[in-house]
TrEMBL record, chains A, B, C:
It is a multi-pass membrane protein. PANTHER family: AMMONIUM TRANSPORTER, RH BLOOD GROUP, D ANTIGEN. It comes from Labrus bergylta. Belongs to the ammonium transporter (TC 2.A.49) family. Rh subfamily. The keyword DNA-binding does not apply. This is Rh blood group, D antigen. One of its GO terms (molecular function) is ammonium channel activity. Residues 43-418 form the Ammonium transporter AmtB-like domain. Keywords: Membrane, Transmembrane, Transmembrane helix.
Length: 445, 445, 445
């Protein structure tokens, strides 16, 4: 695909020999990406057979749903919306790299199903301990997919610089860490299950940040040769964004019970309004911060989601439309400015090469949501003692989440630095050709 | 992206200077698209903060839904279908221009959320006047998005020849006009709310037509340099079409109550059948009217929707499958022939450069649906007096709608002709580069 | 699109004459694809008017749904999921050919609506015979679309080598054959309606196989000039795959009644798990069977669906998660190995040029599901006599299905071999330009 600049002039053969000559010393390094045959295939088959084995002994499909027969039908569209978020939304969002589309979308499916299978087991350990069986139903699938989303956020930070073996390990370790964190929060701090799940944005973003810091490659200050997008890959990515943006109200509301009547409607409307405001604000800030007064497609792809993220973390205390809209407004400003200025700063000053700017897209809006939760809860509190108690618990929640995500990120990073996993060379970063066959590929004219 | 033919040979600087020399007199005109920094960003921020302010004082999320708890869950999938229509359907339908994909899709999100926020307020003015609060629920969001659709139809007619500041103004004025029209019809003529909303196709198409006539640029008789599509942008556009086509039954039926039992099923089946017939007929007419006997992708993208539009306008009187199918059949013929012959005639004879042929896609099928409504209602009427009364009201409905849409279109057009809004030059029409940054864009080889 | 190398230098006319000279003897053959004006347009119009006529006399929208009012709302999202499978899933799955995207997606819509309209009538013949009317409701639409899916599977085998007239005939004859098969199975062998519908994978695959054998073109051993994909068309196709993969649980469960409580949930979970396992296993086998240890996008597009197909055929007896996962595991292995080795073997040894490898994607997993059904049912059977009786019926089911699909395939193939239908020349296979106008197409730079 034309990685050699003199191709057209001299033909392919000359070009390769020329390269070998020019490269001199580096010809000793393998020219082609290392084969993953002996790594990826056994790993996947082994893990998959292990999962089948565990599922055979420990799981059952919930059968006593005579009462919930109607619930299944009501819940099923919501479940599919979460599926859309995971497989279409995140999958196509990561196709923006011009030569990394197959990997962005294909590995997303692969990694998601591995992580979801693991998350179902981990989430069910308690139930298995007490009842001997993990019951599978739509709700447990949805919770598992939400844990998967936290892994997908982490993966966004190292997109293009890892091979699928890495990605599977990242996903499995991240999901384990996230479930552990969820359990800590629920057991130690008595945090509501829903609130603990919604830490996924913060956990995923900081885990990914640590990971990309550990896996830093020298020379990343300049963009990689293939780290760029074109018109069409931008549109594919926009497609993923629109799916995420549209179904984010479903994602936030899916686990909300309707016990205090209308609660679910409240979450849907809040998320919808926050997303609407985010879209407008992200566009405005993007134009404002551009010297030529132009929009940036990356901002439109990532930062319009900031409102949804922030509401997700704070939704249990957002009651008024204007609160949701203000949160969306501030989240979009923070996220867009973070994307414009913080991303490059993180790279140059801290050696964190965050491919999809997950810190700005999920980390900062998540923190903002956490703050909004604190402020709004304190505002509603009449009793000072209650307020202080809540504040302490809330700060501990954040502290535990960030500590655990950073430390898990470092552990995972150490593990992945081994050359045993055959990381792609710098030249093969952001390139599908390292992982995919192109037998009948048309020569682009 | 190769707008300069000698770029590769001499480098960018030489190229620019060369251009300046070659262009001679026209060098006085600004070469780059005018910056929107001082126009778009303040406008968006000001409007958005205004909306937050208004929402803070006037709106509340509906809370007394104890009875409708089950309704929320039933309505939510329908609500998301309408979202799909607005954000995915219209968004990707307008990516067919080869260099205008980012704008087509990105501005659609931007404009839709602005228009929806305004429409929620305007639709709720009456409730605000009497109750002091505008309540937000899924139904009010859906109605607001339907008003937005009428704005999106208008925008289709001026696609590519305007900047986002124009588009925001068009959307806000169009939605205001449409809500006014809806209020006129409901108050003066006692038209059913649903029927008045469904005038959106006619209102949007004629508003857009007037707009494109006002904004006519000299030299539009020949296609603009970048007014063309390629294989991949055609497929993106087809994706939007398929979404529209598939979820059109949801769009038509979402506000239909199920009071006369089975009414909703009737609308869904009618729309489904009409769309199916439209798809076949549009293909047939497209082949028949082509000298070489080939299909035209534009026809497949627009005209297969004609049946859904026509049924939408006439659905309250369509009861038999064959009626729906016949309406779909005729609508597709009218729409395809309109696209093939009328579009160019409107351009040459009336100076209406209707980019997406909205007159043929929404205007004519809408008028046909209006006619079908009249005919079928009269057929069902036993009483002559009733029939004549209905006919008079029905004709007044159309008359008011068209008058208001034309006059609002002219007013909007006058406003937008000001150079203050910095319209893109002719050379920058249909070009993303006027509005979007391309920092890491891959050079297409 | 640059099919003529000297176009830009000399203009189109010179170019054509040059070609004519160079081609010498072959100038006698028509250079342009034959016009379909006199074939396709009358056929479509005639059939469509016929359908309207039949629908006018024989159908009615179900009106006595006072009890099922709530069912409509519950069923509608499921119905839309099946729509997504048919129009988005299969439509975009077949856009993987680099120059055949418009046809892959556009003809899919055309053919699906024709086949669905016919299937509604054919499925309702019995009801028409006894009650005088065919009632149309969401369930009958879903059953009709499932019959359509069997036609789409067949069409996948001949994709790119046929014109739309062929495709319409194939779809109509295949659907007729499939409905006949369904009737045979239900009447003669008392097979459950749902089980007989799920034979669609086997019926469609073998029908398509026979068809592509009948329509074999000499020289197909080597890939056709345009039978290849590129980065972007691969992504479009991946989009279709993800839609299919995500909504396959809806497809399998849509017609399952919830009478034994939780049955529907069981089918959804089984399909979901089988698909998850399939995705992992297909990737592993793809890497394992590749000499360079790389993934193949075609395998990721087709073989990850194998688990869903196999569960679809066997779902009435799959109760445990591990059973579903094991079936998904084996189905993916069979399907991927079939794609890698069997496809080329079928071409070279049996002259079956199966464009989308439908035998491996739907045929083999379907047979595996049939086998799993047999084994699991026998395992559950306590009574030997019952077991043997079931086995006989089950084997007869398969025998009838395959016999009928092969014979219908041969009959259809004979009919389509007539030159009257103007098949595209070898040079115009896999090429949109034979069927679509490209008026404003941008020259790709």
């Amino acid at each position: 695909m034309g990685s050699c600049p003199v191709k057209s002039a001299r033909g392919t053969k000359t070009c390769v020999s020329l390269k070998n000559t020019v490269l001199g010393a580096s010809t000793m390094a393998p020219w082609y990406a290392p084969s993953l045959r002996s790594r990826l295939a056994p790993l996947l088959l082994f893990l998959q057979m292990g999962f089948i084995f565990i599922y055979g002994f420990c799981t059952e499909v919930e059968s006593n749903v005579s009462v919930d027969g109607i619930t299944f039908r009501n819940f099923y569209p919501n479940f599919q919306d979460v599926n859309v978020i995971v497989f279409l939304g995140f999958g196509f969002l990561s196709t923006f790299l011009v030569r990394y589309g197959f990997s962005g979308c294909g590995f997303n499916v692969l990694v998601s199903v591995m992580a979801t299978q693991l998350a179902i087991i981990l989430n069910g350990i308690e139930s298995w301990y007490y009842r001997g069986k993990i019951s599978i139903n739509l709700r447990s699938l949805v919770v598992a997919e939400m844990c998967t989303v936290s892994a997908l956020i982490s993966i966004g930070a190292v997109l293009g610089k890892t091979n699928p073996v890495h990605l599977v390990f990242i996903a499995l370790l991240e999901v384990s860490g996230f479930v552990l964190n969820k359990w800590f929060l629920q057991t130690l701090l008595k945090v509501q299950p829903l609130n603990s799940i919604m830490q996924l944005h913060i956990f995923g973003a900081f885990f990914g940040l640590m990971l990309t810091w550990m896996l830093y490659r020298k020379g990343s200050e300049l963009p990689f040769e293939k780290e760029k997008s074109d018109h069409k890959s931008g549109l594919f990515s926009m497609l993923g964004t629109v799916f995420l943006w549209m179904f984010w109200p479903s994602f936030n509301s899916v686990l909300v019970g309707d016990a205090p009547s209308g609660r679910k409607l409240g979450v849907v409307c809040s998320t919808y309004l926050a997303l609407a405001v985010s879209a407008v604000t992200a566009a405005a800030v993007s134009v404002l911060s551009s010297p030529k007064g132009k929009l940036n497609l990356n901002h439109m792809q990532s930062c319009i989601l900031a409102g949804g993220v922030a509401i997700g973390v704070s939704m249990s205390v957002v009651h008024q439309p204007w609160e949701a809209m203000s949160i969306g407004f501030i989240a979009a400003i923070v996220s867009t400015i973070g994307y414009r200025y913080l991303k490059i700063h993180m790279l140059l000053a801290f050696q964190c090469h965050d491919t999809c700017a997950m810190l700005s897209t999920h980390g900062l809006p998540g923190l903002l949501g956490w703050l909004a939760h604190l402020v709004l809860q304190l505002k509603d509190c009449d009793d000072h003692t209650m307020g202080i108690r809540f504040a302490v618990v809330h700060i501990c929640t954040l502290f535990i989440t960030i500590t655990l995500s950073l430390s898990m990120g470092i552990i995972t990073g150490c593990l992945l630095k081994l050359n045993f996993w055959r990381p792609p060379q710098d030249k093969k970063c952001f390139d599908d050709q390292a992982f995919w066959e192109f037998p009948h590929l048309a020569v682009q004219k």
